[in-house]
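Internal tracking record. Fields below are filled automatically when a chain is submitted to the structure queue. Please do not edit lines marked as system-generated. If the sequence contains nonstandard residues, flag them in the REMARKS field before resubmitting.
Queue: standard
Priority: normal
Entity type: single polypeptide chain
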Amino acid sequence: MTIHSVATPKPADAGRASHKSRDWFALALLMFPVLLVAVDNTALTFALPAIARSLDPSGVQLLWVVDAYALVLAGLLVAMGSLGDRIGRRRLLLIGISGFAAVSAASAFAPNAEWLIAGRAALGFFGAMLMPSTLSLIRNIFQEPGRRRLAVAIWAAGFSGGAALGPIFGGWLVEHFWWGAVLLVAVPIMLPPLFLGRFLIPESRDPKPGRVDPASVALSMLTMVPMVYGIKELATHGPGLASFGVIAFGLAMGFLFVRRQHTLASPLLDMTLFGNRVFSTAITANILSLFSYNGFILFLAQHLQLLEGMSPSESGTAMVPALTAMVVAGLLVVPLVRKVRPGFVVAAGLALSATGYGLVTFGNHDGGPAALLAALLVLALGVGSAETISNDLILGAVPAEKSGAAAAISETGYEVGSLLGTAVLGSILTASYQQQLALPEAVAQTVPAASAEQATETLAGAVELAGTLPAPLAEALTAAAGAAFDSGVHITAAIALGLMAGASVLAAVVLRRIPRAR
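SYSTEM-GENERATED OUTPUT FOLLOWS
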């Protein structure tokens, strides 16, 4: 009788398999804060009417409920990314998770608007610890480029999926509970990474971190906060001396920040990163992807709600297929870069975004929302493709010990791209609408001058005025306003088309030498 020996795995192989399994468990835990931040960004919008009824804030206070979070977050991203490199990225993540959960619980029961605004600012402080930490931890956990690329794709899919779920989830919570549930839900979501993260997420930090420079932290905040505030003002109130003055102040502080970094032995932000053409081009691709997507959402949401008569939740649901396509595209490009160079994948994604805007520029919007939603689907496919690979290129272009700073820059690009898309394309759209709209003579002779001015300012003002008029006048005003708005959409889309096409060519040229993934 022949006795066959049974092959047993070598201890080293078993250890490597166990280690790789632990990596994916760590990624699963990292997805909890990613999903929460993405959902929180969009869900709160649907709670604003309930907040207004419950706390009776002024118009300015209601605006600060939204803006306080974004301003503090943007101002601290760079500082928190560098801090994670110094004190440990897992440590910073767990501090952020604890603080975010505690402040969310306290803010959910805010007795007045001032309390809620302060809570939102504190959430921005702890939120700035979360996103750079998750992305930089992925860079250090997944050292192999192929596994890292898949992990980044899952990270991006979680962020996009959370943004898609936010409006639906937020509306459901407000409808079945109360507005505070949108904030309180952070507590159970944060519990798994809070209790298991210390055991499953490996710690990583810069082995030679250097000292934190308080002046650089202050200058980074004085750069980002005024710039973000100025861009928001530009989007809300249009071009003006105040908005441009605030942006100019932020740029001046940014100049001082850059100069100081060049003089420090241990800078808060290593400016030599931007000398890497792959890194800087991938950052540009990220910014423009978010620029194009948020600019598109801006005018699509107005079209669906004001011209097609959809409710906010209905319009959000109508966009879900495109957001789903963004998630799927981000995952599908991971195996694609084994056959196609990553630079060409990024360029193709930006070209798809340009194609989406091309469909809007040369299309007809009179046949209902289907054409615009189809264009959004094409654009979303492009954004999902370009965003995933560009994030991987950003992380792969820097040493692992600098991944916190790189992730912070990437996240800042997300914020700036989103804001610029809304501000720049929104301002062009508003200016074009105001120039193109000619009130029907019968309407101009019927309504007071103040009401007529309101209608010529925004599409929402025209639709609101139409609701107070007899049917023939309402139809005439709505048709004129819709035509002026669509004319502005064509002009805005043509500008975005040119920008995205140019970015596609730039990516193809600069990133063309990056080899295919093994």
